[in-house]
User: Fold L-rhamnose mutarotase from Microbacterium ulmi.
Amino acid sequence: MTRVCFQLRVKPELLDEYLARHSPVWPEMLAEIAAAGRRNYSLFLGDGGQLIGYYETDDDAAAQAYLAASPVAARWEAQMARFFVGLEGRPDQAATPLTEIFHLHDQLAAAAASDHEGTDR
Assistant:
C-alpha cells in the first residue's frame, strides 16, 4: 500500500466557491476516485488557501492512469483547474507531491521487529 500526500494552493478569492464545490463532490466523481483504487482520501485546507491532500492506494501509477483516462475526472478537473495558484495541467496530475518522512505504524512495527530480534538471541 502506498500513502500519497500532495499540496496545492487555492486562490484566496475563490475559497468559498471551492468549498461549495466539495459539499458534496459529484457522485460520479466519487465513484471514479474509488474505481481508480484510491481510498482513505482526504483534503485539508489551511491558511491562505493551502490545500493538503492525502490518499492511499495499492498502485498509484495505475490510479493516476485510470483517472487520466476518465471522462468524468477530465470534466471535474477542467472545472476545478481555475481554483489553483500556479498550476499547469489537470489538478489531479499536476499537484506537488510531498515526501513522507514519518509514519507511526511503520516505526512501531520496525521497533517491535527489532525488539523481537534482540530476544531471539
